[in-house]
Write a structure and sequence with these properties.
The structure holds two protein chains of two kinds.
Chain A (H helix, E strand, L loop, with lengths): L1 H20 L11 E11 L7 E10 L3 E8 L3 E6 L2 E6 L2 E6 L6 H12 L10 E5 L6 E7 L10 E8 L3 E8 L4 E12 L5 H10 L2
Antiparallel strand pairs in A: 1-2, 1-11, 2-3, 3-4, 4-5, 5-6, 7-8, 8-9, 9-10, 10-11
Chain B lengths: L1 H24 L3 E2 L13 H15 L1 E8 L2 H18 L2 E5 L4 H11 L9 H8 L3 H13 L7 H6 L4 H8 L8 E3 L2 E6 L2 E10 L6 H21 L4 E5 L1 H35 L3 H25 L2 E2 H11 L2 H11 L8 H26 L5 H23 L1 H4 L10 H15 L4 H21 L6 H4 L4 H14 L6 E7 L2 H20 L3 E5 L8 H27 L33 E2 L6 E10 L2 H7 L6 E5 H60 L6 H23 L5 H18 L9 H20 L5 H6 L3 H8 L8
Parallel strand pairs in B: 1-8
Antiparallel strand pairs in B: 2-6, 2-7, 3-6, 4-5, 5-6, 9-12, 9-13, 10-12, 11-12
The chains are: A alpha+beta, B alpha+beta.
């Protein structure tokens, strides 16, 4: 279940820290959405090749996150304040917030960060900026080694310009993965009917 | 006589000293309804389960501290928890569930993961749809939220354990573990959930008061720093406290009003202080003795028995009133003569009433026992005081006064029943009464529902409703009890039951249920699961799965084949610790579990569900209390009839068969008509009406006996005594009809109606003599001008 945290951490951390470090980063305002493509590579020890997947994501303050994997399988994952939903074909796995400790806390942080207030993240991560202001790199390390984040994550490396472009997550267990974001667009268009339905279906 | 009076003083001094000692060391009044449960004919296992339910769920409280600001709510919860801990009245407080609790759950399940399947995964494997599980696992691995890492992938390749964990039923569905604190958000507010188990000795009035005042004080303190803070509470202790407090407050206010009025009435009628303090003396002696004997016998007193008992010995004031009224009569004579004249009446009154109360001892109901002993002792002590003491205090020459008009007024009732000119009025009145009673009888209905009878404070109900809305749990009074020779048998049976419950849930019979077997499958089921996983998942799909994700070493996960998960392993202080309370510790042989049912909608269908499952029983704690009240009500009515019968021999000895029937006639009519007349107002007949009827019988038999005993020339004074007795009774207990506590109100209304009827009908008991001397009563009044009242 820590995985749930991870994805949220990535998202808020990317945007939040980017916003804090670089004035050029775009903050998502109320009613806006951030949409784009992702490519994910997961490196697990003992495996011949990394597990690769790609698809589309959508982040909407107040609603949550939609993560649609298109290759090699079609799966949809939705995270909202109510919980988490993972759909594979017609099969849906639901995890209400009550099952995932800290999800709400992270969701609150995410919302805060999206609104430009990222002080909430200070308690969990220490950030060190490594690059230039135009093409920046930030390394995040957990503050508390013993809590759920610290027990899981060694460090997170973010690279970006006006958006976060690459996220690398290194885990204590030796797993690591890389996420590459592309075609990121901030829009003020209302959510599509499909996306609204996805967000709504989480709490059901 | 002097010696006897002095010995009585000695006895009272002893009783008084004992009572003072008890009050000094601190007296506890019981308020726990459970204490009223009959001790007989209950299945030991059901009894044990009920005790256990009461123990666990009756002592459980839930507090929700809410505020728009999360930090404020969390700080406030911390302060409240400190207050709870500081009270020393809690056994455990569930408030902070740290990471460790979750890890403990993980540690418990992990070694047994190959025997655990969520119900949907189990169905998939049974139906040969293992492929779906593989696809799901692949999607998970490639998806953004992998359940685990490379290590877990080797140990639980299809992520069955995370799926199992996600499928576990949680008691509080909306509650989130927010950084270690159980919380729920609603309408922009954060509520922190605090659950506590109280000590076992909290169900006494003093402890309840102390506990509730601690909570209230903390609430005030919290409000002082954060005015918008919201504190919601639910738990039997709050209801018990509210019920007892309202009842006691109302009874004391009504008691004050009625005492004052009674004092005024006595003073107006007798124009002297002596009858007043005579009455006070007899009543207080009665109450004092009743208390000391009850404390001596039972060590404590139930608040219900106390309230009704105090009412019942209110009858004792009648003895002194009769004695004093006799002093107003024309040939009153000296104090001893007056006593001799009222003695047969009050003695018979006492004996019959005592018989009535002693029959209450025949029923195996602790509540009725206490009530009977309390009232009987009180009556007896008052009686002895009247007989032994009053004449000693009453030796002065009575002061002359003009109470003639009261005597005249009182004797009018005799006249009404005797004079031929009132014949038509009598017929109309009696006919009217009977007609009303018939209409009432048609509307007569019985209601024992405890939820109606309890005075549930509206404010608390509202809070309970909010809590149910917020965290999805209610009072929890309905269960299945599952018994078996050992825990494995119980779990297997439970699995059969939960399968039925699951489908009942789909059909809206109930909202949710919690059973141990939902978390810890039986060993048989764990074996089955292992086989299913091995034969239908690992063997057909593991290779292909590993190939797909590129794992080269192809190791099959290993588990200990001999070890199985058992309920004893559920860790304390974890999100699952609640489940431990569903396992009953076994005093007898075998094993038993409870299945907790939430928000039952269709109770009848639920009862049906256990049909055919041996050793599974439906337990309904609220329903049991309702049945208890029903049982008490039925017993009270039966005993009423029985005590009427047991009074017969002594009445026959004194009055002969016809005479005794005549004496029983007014009480019998009052007893039959009262419930019907009360039903006219639409009020259902409950235990509290029945117990009021016991009092109506005790009092009305007294009235009838006094009338029967009334000698010529003393009828008006007898009737004055009865009138005053009626007036004081109605003033003291009839006023309870104004109470907002349902039980008290029902008691008061029944009493007011019953006593009025008994009073109106009482001359019929002495009617026969009157027929021989049609003008007796008038002569009696005529002589009154020479009377020298004495009291």
């Amino acid at each position: 279940m820590i995985g749930v945290l991870r994805v949220v951490v990535i998202i808020f951390a990317s945007i939040g820290l980017a916003a804090a470090s670089t004035p050029r980063i775009t903050i998502i305002g109320p009613g806006q959405t951030l949409e784009g493509r992702f490519q994910q590579e997961r490196h697990l020890p003992g495996m011949a090749a990394p597990l690769q997947s790609e698809g589309r994501f959508l982040l909407s303050p107040g609603h949550g996150l939609i993560w649609q994997c298109e290759k090699p399988f079609t799966t949809t994952t939705v995270i909202t304040p109510a919980g988490l939903l993972q759909k594979v074909d017609d099969d849906a796995l639901r995890l209400p917030t009550s099952r995932v400790p800290f999800l709400r806390h992270f969701y609150d942080m995410l919302s805060g960060v999206l609104a430009g207030n990222w002080s909430a993240t200070n308690s969990d991560f220490k950030a060190v900026q490594e690059g230039e202001a135009g093409e920046w790199r930030i390394r995040l390390t957990p503050v508390h080694a013993e809590d759920s984040i610290g027990a899981e994550i060694e460090s997170i490396l973010l690279t970006g310009d006006s958006f976060v472009n690459i996220v690398e997550i290194h885990k204590i267990s030796g797993d690591w993965e890389r996420l590459v974001f592309a075609h990121q667009v901030i829009s003020s268009k209302p959510l599509s009917i499909t996306d609204t339905a996805l967000f709504d279906s989480v709490g059901q | 006589m002097k010696l006897a009076a002095l010995s009585w003083l000695g006895a009272l001094a002893a009783a008084g000293a004992y009572l003072a000692l008890r009050l000094w060391t601190g007296v506890e009044f019981q308020t726990d309804l459970m204490a009223l449960m009959p001790q007989e004919e209950r299945d030991a296992a059901v009894q044990h389960a009920n005790d256990r339910i009461n123990d666990v769920f009756g002592r459980r409280i839930v507090l929700l501290v809410g505020h728009a600001d999360r930090t404020t709510a969390r700080t406030a919860a911390g302060i409240l928890v400190q207050a709870l801990q500081g009270s020393g009245m809690t056994q455990s407080i569930t408030y902070r569930i740290g990471e460790e609790g979750y890890r403990a759950v993980g540690r418990m399940f992990f070694p047994h993961r190959m025997g655990l399947l969520s119900s949907s995964d189990r169905a998939r494997l049974q139906e040969g749809r293992g492929q779906e599980i593989m696809v799901r696992a692949l999607a998970n691995i490639y998806g953004p939220i992998a359940f685990g890492d490379a290590i877990l992938l080797r140990q639980d390749p299809f992520f069955l354990l995370p799926t199992y964990l996600a499928s576990l039923p949680l008691p509080m569905s909306r509650v989130v573990n927010d950084e270690g604190l159980l919380s729920v958000s609603d309408r922009g507010k954060t509520f922190v959930v605090i659950e506590a188990e109280l000590n076992s000795n909290v169900f006494s009035l003093a402890a309840e008061k102390q506990f509730v005042s601690i909570i209230n004080a903390s609430e005030r303190d919290l409000r002082a720093s954060a005015p918008d803070i919201e504190l919601l509470r639910v738990g039997s202790i709050f209801y018990a406290h509210a019920g007892a407090v309202t009842a006691i407050q109302e009874v004391s206010v009504i008691g004050m009003i009625s005492t004052f009025t009674i004092v005024v009435v006595i003073f107006i009628v007798f124009r002297a202080l002596r009858p007043l303090w005579f009455s006070l003396l007899t009543v207080s002696v009665g109450i004092m003795c009743a208390f000391s004997v009850c404390f001596w016998l039972y060590g404590t007193l139930h608040i219900g028995a106390l309230l009704f008992g105090v009412s019942l010995i209110g009858v004792t004031v009648d003895y002194s009133l009769h004695y004093c009224s006799e002093g107003l009569s024309s040939h009153s004579g000296d104090a001893w003569t007056r006593l001799r004249r009222v003695l047969p009446g009050i003695t018979l009154g006492l004996v019959t009433t005592l018989i009535g109360y002693l029959t209450l001892l025949l029923a195996p109901f602790p509540g009725l026992h206490e009530l009977a002993v309390f009232s009987a002792v009180g009556l007896l002590a008052s009686f002895i005081t009247v007989v032994l003491w009053l004449p000693w205090f009453d030796r002065d020459q009575p002061a002359p006064h003009r109470s003639r008009r009261f005597l005249l007024a009182a004797s009018w009732l005799w006249t009404f029943w005797e004079e031929p000119k009132y014949q038509r009025t009598r017929i109309v009145l009696v006919g009217g009464c009977v007609m009303l009673a018939v209409i009432g009888a048609a509307r007569f209905k019985v209601d024992d529902d405890v939820r109606r009878l309890q005075s549930l404070a509206d404010d608390l109900k509202l809070q309970e409703f909010s809590i149910r809305h917020l965290i999805g749990i209610g009072a929890g009074t309905q269960f299945f009890l599952i018994q078996g020779p050992d825990e494995e048998a119980v779990l297997e049976k439970e699995e059969q039951l939960t399968q039925r419950l699951e489908s009942a849930k789909q059909h809206g019979v109930l909202a949710q249920f919690q059973a141990v077997s939902q978390i810890i499958p039986s060993i048989a089921r764990q074996r089955e699961n292992r086989a299913l996983i091995q034969d239908r998942l690992i063997i057909p799909f593991l290779q292909a799965y590993y190939d797909q994700i590129g794992i080269s070493d192809r190791k099959v996960p290993e588990v200990d084949e001999r070890s199985f998960l058992t309920p004893a392993e559920i860790p304390k202080n974890s999100p699952l610790s609640f489940m431990r309370s569903l396992i009953l510790d076994n005093k007898t042989e075998g094993s038993s579990h409870l299945v907790l049912l939430n928000s039952v909608v269709k109770e009848e269908e639920l009862r049906e569900i256990a049909h055919g499952l041996d050793g599974v029983r439906f337990i309904d704690a609220a329903g049991d209390f309702s049945r208890l009240f029903g049982e008490y009500r039925r017993r009270a009515v039966e005993l009423l009839a029985l005590s009427s019968l047991t009074m017969m021999p002594i009445l026959i000895w004194r009055y002969g068969i016809m005479g005794s029937l005549r004496v029983l006639f007014p009480p019998a009519v009052a007893l039959i008509l009262t419930p019907a007349l009360v039903a006219l107002g639409g009020q259902p007949f409950t235990f509290f009406n029945a117990i009021a009827l016991v009092l109506v019988l005790a009092i009305s038999i007294d009235y009838a006996i006094f009338c029967k005993e009334a000698e010529v020339g003393h009828k008006s004074s007898t009737m004055l005594g009865i009138s005053l007795a009626t007036l004081t009774t109605i003033l003291s207990f009839g006023l309870l009809a104004l109470s907002s506590v349902y039980a008290v109100q029902a008691f008061g209304i029944t009493l007011a109606v019953g006593i009025s009827l008994a009073f109106l009908l009482s001359p019929l008991a002495g009617f026969k003599q009157a027929q021989h001397r049609p003008r007796a009563s008038l002569l009696d009044i005529g002589d009154e001008r020479h009377s020298v009242p004495s009291c």
